Structure formats: C-alpha cells, structure tokens
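Sequence only, no structure available. Ideas?
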Amino acid sequence: MSFDTDLNRLIANSVRLETARYAGILGLAPSKGARSPVLWNAAFAAAGSDACMLPLDVAAAELPALLAYLRDDSRFLGGAVAVPHKQGLLTLLDHLEPEAAQIGAVNAIYRRPDGLLVGANTDGAGALSEITNVVGGPDKLAERRAMVMGLGGAGLAVAAYLAGKVANLRVTNRTAAPAEEFAGRIAAEAVPWPLATARLENCDLLVNCTAIGFDGGPAGSPLQPDQLAVLPAHAVVYDIIYQPLQTPLLAAAEGRGLQNRNGLGMNLEQAVIAFAKANRGLLSDAEIRAVMRDV
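Reply:
I predicted one. Tokens follow.
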C-alpha cells in the first residue's frame, strides 16, 4: 500500500507526501490552522532539505496505531504535538527527555539515530524566554509573583519552567487534584478554580494557559473585569494563545494599561528548539530562528 493510503487510514484529514522525508504535528485538528507546518516548512526550504511537515489530525483512540506507523517509517523525522495529545503520548514513545518526564507532557518528538522516538517538551523553554524578555530579564523575573492558570500540557511546562525563577508561584486548574499534586512537585501553591479575586491582589505576572479565548475553544476570558482590576499597575499579563493575536483577556489588560503579550513568540521559540532536535545540524538555532521569524 502507498504511504498516503496507510497514513490516511489513521488520521481524520488527508495528506500527501511529496518529499523524501517528513515531520508531523499530531493533534486533534492541526490542519485547521496550526502554525508549526508553516514554520518548519520555511526552515526546510531555507536548508534545501527535501522534507516537509504535515498536519496529522488524530483522535486519541488512533494514537497508538499512528505512533507505531511513524516509528516504523524511517522517513519520519519527528515533529510537534498539539492539544489534546501532549499527555496522552507519554506512554507511547520509546523515551522521554528528563524535562518532559518531570512535566508530564510532550510537545515535540524526534527520532534517535537508533530509530527510536523520543518525547521532549519545548513549551516551557519557549514561554520562559518570552516571559523573561517581557518583564525585563532574569533579575526582574525573580522579583515577580506569578499565577499560572490552566495545567494542560502547555500549562504544566510553563509552570515547571517558572518554578524557582520567580519570587512566588501559584497555579490553578479546573480539576483540583492534579494541580495539588503537580504544585507539590515543583514547590508551588495550588489555589482553587475559579479564582477568588483576593488571590490576585499581589499577583504581578499572570499567565493564561487555559484554552479560554482560543479560536474554536471556550469563548471569553478566564478572568472577569473586577478580577483584572486588582492586579498591580506594573503587572504583566501573558497569554500563551496566539489565535487570535489579541484574546479577550489581553484586550482587557490593554484597556487597563497593563503590559501584555500573546503566545506568538512562545510558538516561535518552541518551534526553533523542536526543529533543531528533529533535524540535528541541518541549521543553527540562529538560522532557524531567523527563517521562522520572517514567516
């Protein structure tokens, strides 16, 4: 059977391979606007590599079969992992990088020279780079009292990378038990969801890792206007969402005059790191970043 026939049986969208090698982004519906294929394909083109990244829309029930297929296909380089599979892939990969194992989620895959597939997490590193930049550097970050809202795959990574780098870290999640367990592992404080306004009075770094405000996700903002109003005037509001570029949360923060940033830069940085892992030596990090930034 052809590549197209075999793979298309396992995914909900339709793809066609026209290159010698390929990467993929695995998610529920990355074909509906995920940015990773655009970024990776620009880097492949800049390197003159006969490779591409394909969006692979896959249901959770098909993940084991898809991973088996990709493992057996030596043309598969690796790629990215999107919602909701960042945690579901943990037990299906051959190895996990230590950071991914600690976080409990993967957002990147790469093939080792021996052919085995390794899971990594670049979400946290990408977010940390952006947040550090927006607050004015590591020393300024160390003074911040942070709140991370939402502990899905990306939220776990962001919280893990912020732990120990901020003055105080609180996390909140719709389901309390996982938040409490994770908070204990990273020396953070778990607080109940929905957030009590009083919990935000001393928060000067608010990070949204929920899907609230995402195109196609729950509408609105994770915070009400009265909650946002209690943040200090110097607070930074960071939203990992980049579709749309301005979420209702960021629009409200802008209206209050608070410094704010969306997740576009995080998306770029995590893609740079993931591409480098899957394509060792093809381009330097600086070259990858320059190409992807111009997309």
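The chain has two domains: 3-121+266-293, 124-262.
Hope that gets you unstuck.
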